Structure to design on (844 residues):
């Protein structure tokens, strides 16, 4: 039996009962003969509560101190979990990110893992203990300060530890049964995905699927760690993310899932002089402000026209910073107008099957048209098509595309009919 | 200007407003030109809340994990305080006990400080930063695990750091103006003590005065660190604890203060055979159970009698353990009966002036008699007299002794008369 890494999120550890339930699952895994290393997030809304406390103190708290504050959350959950496991007769030891050897750079609040030196974890596992590690946190190589890896990064801690420990699998426990073909709140007929490739999952995550942290999937792909996303509230199998679908290209659906994202906004720079290098200056200014641009569309100038419009999408939280950076360029570049729209949403089809199936775009656009959805921007990759639509039309677009690509589950319909008494 | 160590307790850091108020005080001290190292406790009732959480999980949590849990409290308060200080334009860096170099033994929950290696603190001070250190916690020398020093031990962290940094003073901030001649809730005329010697303060702490942690005073005496106990809610001077009163024995009050303690209980072992070594066996059994005995009284056997009664006091929390340990000895030692009484209180007079003033005991007992208080047990040291009385008579005993030794403040009486309109 090998090493199993399990990661439990805040919703699985919401209260004392949740902690006890998770402890039972861990002990059951241990009794199967595995070495078990557990990564935990903070309980429930603890991290948000700590953030609120910081906001009461300071509008712009120093990043080093914010990291020191937020890491208290995992410290609480991991110690309680170790107690609950001990209460079941199994020894367990909790470790902070620093104690677990999670070495990062010094970028507080969004630190990157540089190395994992899991000597203490290996010793604990060798002694027969369950090792519990605080997710989301590490220690900086240069300053030995406590760092955090960014929201949702406990998944990344888990996958990185799985790689360092040469684990057989990294199980990501959450409050749903896995990753679905679409958000079940929008598409009741959405099905759980059995298998997805790393590439598909990367596209899903980048397009708004929130179940897995993007960087954790990148890490898993690089180190070839199978991820099993499943529910901590049931024993049902969840979604496997691995390279099996690439190794065994069995009969495959064209589209794996429909993702959506309401966290973006759109900026249009109208009347940009149609000269070489003007667009580059705009995007340099945004890059200097640390803003990541997602989709970009540049209109073709009208015949005889001397200016063009450039539109792009970016995270809503960066909207104000971007508008200010661009406004400062207006005298120099001489564009006419800046327009900001945060009432947009992104809908994406993702599927490795797109590579070999032509006509996906046509079918997608027909589905959108049938639902009366107007497409504002388009971008594609080898295994993804994304469109920007009006925020109010996101749900209709997702549902229509899900149906058009035969993703709707038969079983859910049966349940619905059953519910009406037939 | 030298180094000043300031310690702020949980009541001073109860909420965001409290944290901001403390930050202003720290920045004001820094502006006077001092290097400032701050030791913090957890905010308000955080530590008790974390203990409650642990109790919901496990009746007997592993000590290592309980320490991991409880140290989250100071992590939160120190990070918030650093933010509040930064918000006032002063740089500050927070450090865990481990980062601050607080090296302890491995006795989780009651670890002793072995050494302080404050390299990071000294670097921060040299860089002009305020250094903020988590009180109550350290890291074990052998296992590198997180340890806690016991309830109230943030005072000890502060004094130990003051010694390691060769600080000019260790200021202990609390929610009262200093140490009083008696508990003002019992004796409204109690006065703030200006100066006390280390020895007097040790006796006061050992006899129930809760303002300072006993071990912090021992540490201060060993390293000759002046302690200034004062309020974080006012700028009034507080109580100095140092060796000045020994160096300059100016005209001194006989009694410095009247302390009381309701946390003890009394056990009487009745009918112990009056043979050599029987009492020793009783106390060995208690020592083996890890119980500290305070006062002991052995009755003289009645003329011609062959047995004696032995009474002693001990912490109430140890009462059950002690009774069980003694009951197991009954067949072997052959005493007649075990009696347990937790309705007792201890009242103590403390004062270095007792050394040179005879008649203190007589005056104390006259005061107790005048108040109708029955004395059950007595013990004395060079600068202290303690009596055990009925719990219901503690207040009367304290008030009467306070008055008899001229400790009542004239000013408070004036305030009282003022209140009646005179």
């Amino acid at each position: 039996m090998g090493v199993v890494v399990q990661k439990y999120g805040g919703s699985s550890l919401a209260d004392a009962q949740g902690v006890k339930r998770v402890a039972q699952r861990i002990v059951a895994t241990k009794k199967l003969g595995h070495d078990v290393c557990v990564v935990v997030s903070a309980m429930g809304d603890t991290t948000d509560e700590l953030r609120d406390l910081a906001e009461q103190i300071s509008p712009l708290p120093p990043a080093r101190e914010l990291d020191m504050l937020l890491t208290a959350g995992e410290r609480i959950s991991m110690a309680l979990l170790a107690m609950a496991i001990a209460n079941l007769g199994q020894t367990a030891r909790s470790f902070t990110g620093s104690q677990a050897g999670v070495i990062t750079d010094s970028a507080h609040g969004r630190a990157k893992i540089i190395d994992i030196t899991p000597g203490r974890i290996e010793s604990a596992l060798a002694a027969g203990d369950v090792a519990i590690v605080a997710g989301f946190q590490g220690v900086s190589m240069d300053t030995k300060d406590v760092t955090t890896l960014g929201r949702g990064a406990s998944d990344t801690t888990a996958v990185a530890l799985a790689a360092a420990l040469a684990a057989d699998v990294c199980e990501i426990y959450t409050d749903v049964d896995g990753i679905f073909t679409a958000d079940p709140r929008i598409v009741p007929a959405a099905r759980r995905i059995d298998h997805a490739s790393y590439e598909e999952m990367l596209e899903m995550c980048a397009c708004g699927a929130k179940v897995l942290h993007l960087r954790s999937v990148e890490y898993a792909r690089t180190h070839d760690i199978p991820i099993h996303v499943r529910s901590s509230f049931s024993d049902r199998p969840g979604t496997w993310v691995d390279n099996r679908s690439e190794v065994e290209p069995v009969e495959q659906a064209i589209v794996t899932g429909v993702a959506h994202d309401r966290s973006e906004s759109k900026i249009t720079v109208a009347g940009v002089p149609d000269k070489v290098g003007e667009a580059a200056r705009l995007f340099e200014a945004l890059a200097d402000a640390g803003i990541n641009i997602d989709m970009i569309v540049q209109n073709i100038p009208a015949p005889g026209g001397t200016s063009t419009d450039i539109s792009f999408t970016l995270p809503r939280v960066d909207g104000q910073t971007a508008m200010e950076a661009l406004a400062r360029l207006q005298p120099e570049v001489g564009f006419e107008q800046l327009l900001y729209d945060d009432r947009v949403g992104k809908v994406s089809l993702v599927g490795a099957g797109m590579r070999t199936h032509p006509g996906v775009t046509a079918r997608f656009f027909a589905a959108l048209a049938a639902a009366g959805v107007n497409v504002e921007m388009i971008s594609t990759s080898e295994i993804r098509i994304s469109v920007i639509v009006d925020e109010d039309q996101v749900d209709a677009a997702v549902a229509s595309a899900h149906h058009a690509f035969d993703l709707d589950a038969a079983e859910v319909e049966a349940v619905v009919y059953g519910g009406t008494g037939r």
In short: The first strand of chain A starts at residue 3 and ends at 8. Residues 3-175 of chain A form a domain with the Carbamate kinase fold (CATH 3.40.1160.10).
